[in-house]
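Narrative of activities, Objective 1.

The group set out to show that a structural description can be obtained from nothing but a protein's sequence at a throughput compatible with the screening campaign. Below is one input-output pair from the validation batch, recorded exactly as produced.
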Amino acid sequence: MLGKDLLLGLTFYRQIADNEVVRSWQKLMEEVDGAIPAKTIDAYHRFNALALEYKWPDFLLDLILDDDNLFSRTAANKGTEIPPSLREIARRDLQLLQEVANLTPQLIKERVVKNLQDNEAWDIPTDHPLHPNNWPQWDQEIGGLSNTSVEEKDSSGAEWLFAARKKIKKALAEHSLVEGMDALVTHYKEVGFGIFGHYAAVRWYKDHFQGRFKGIKNPDPIQLDDLVGLEREKKIVIENTEHFLAGLPSNNVLLYGNRGTGKSSMVKALLNSYVKKGLRLVELAKNDLQDFAQICQLLENEPFKFIIFIDDLSFDDNEPEYKVLKTLIEGGIQTRPENILVYATSNRKHLIKETHEERQSEVHGRDVQDEKLSLSDRFGITVTFTSPDQNEYLKIVESLAAQNSLSIDRDELHQLALRWVLMQKGRSGRTAKQLVDKLVAQAKFDGTEFSKE
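Output recorded for this entry:
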C-alpha cells in the first residue's frame, strides 16, 4: 500500500479529502498500482499540475490550519485543555496526514516503474519524456518559512494573520505534524481556524441565491494613527470596541458625516488594530440585509468577535428594507448574539430620506418622522464626522506628508494643498490623502525628493 487508503482513516480532518487537489492526489494513489499505464500517466500529470499551482505539500498544511472540525473548535475554545480522547483521535489523523505529505514524487515514480516494468503494455524507452524517470515533479519543500514577527505594531490584520500562518507552518515543517500538535493547538487558540483564521475580513457573497462568506485577500491596511484630526471620533469608537472585545456592554455604532471624512477608514483601521484580540470584520451590502439573521446564526457560535460592517447605508422613502434592519438590529424576538455588533456609515444622520410632504404635515409628518428616527435610534452610538476647516485640512496634509517622509517646503505644500482642494471640490481627509499619494508617486516616479528650503 503506497497511500490510497490513508485518507479513508481520517476522523476530524475527513473533509480535507473533499478538496479538489486532495481528490487528485487520491486518484493518483489509486492509479499507481493500476495495470493501465495511460491512466497512471494521466493521474500523475494531473496531480503534478495542481501540486505546482497550489504548492503541495504546503497546501496540505493550509487545509489543516483552515479545517473547521471538532478538534480545531475545541482547541480554539479551550486551548491545551482538550479532552485526552479528542487529542488521541487528532494525533492519529495528523499521523495519517503526515504520511500523505511524506510521499515524494520520487517515491511515487519509483513505485510506478516497479509496478509496470513487467507489464506488456509498458514499452516506453527510458529516454522518452513519458517514462517516469523523465516526469516533471513538484517541490516537496514547505515554502515561505522565513522568520516573521507577528507582533509588529504597524502590521495590518492580514499581515499579522499571514505571519502567524508562516510561524506555525515553520514549526510543523521542522518537526512532524504529531510532534507539532501542541503548537497547532496554540495556533487554533490564538489565531483561529476556518475562514476566520485565514482572513481578517470577509464579505457576504450571494451566488445563485445562496449566501456564503468570501475572504477578502487584501483589506485596507490603514492604521488608526493614519486618521489625522479625528481624535474625538477615534476615542468614542475605540472605547466601544474595546468594551465589546472585553465582553462588556457595548453598542451598535452609526458613523455619520460627509463623504471622505474618514468614516469607513475608521472601521477598517479598527480591524487592523484589534485582529490579534479576535476581532473580525464581515462586510454586508445593503441589498443583502434580508440575510442578516442568517449571518448572525452562522456567527454566533464562532470564538471570535464580529463587526458587521454596512458601508454607505441610507434608504429612500420607498425602500422597505429599513424596517427589516430596524427589527433585526434591535426589537425582534431573537436577541443579537453577544459576539456581534453592527457598525454602519452613512451620509444621512437618520438614514432615511425625508420628503417635503412629511415636513409640511405636522401630525402625520411627526408620526412618519418618529418611525424613521427609530432606525437610527437602534444604533446606541452616533459619531459625527465633520469636514475640516482650512487650518485643520492643512494640518492633515502636513501630517500625512510627514508619515510618508515627503521632504517639501511647508509653504509650497500648503499652496499645492489649497489648489488641490479647488480641483477636488471640497476639503476632507480623503482629499488630503489623495494629494499626498499623488506627491509620493510623483517623487518616486521622478526619482527625486522634494527639497527643503
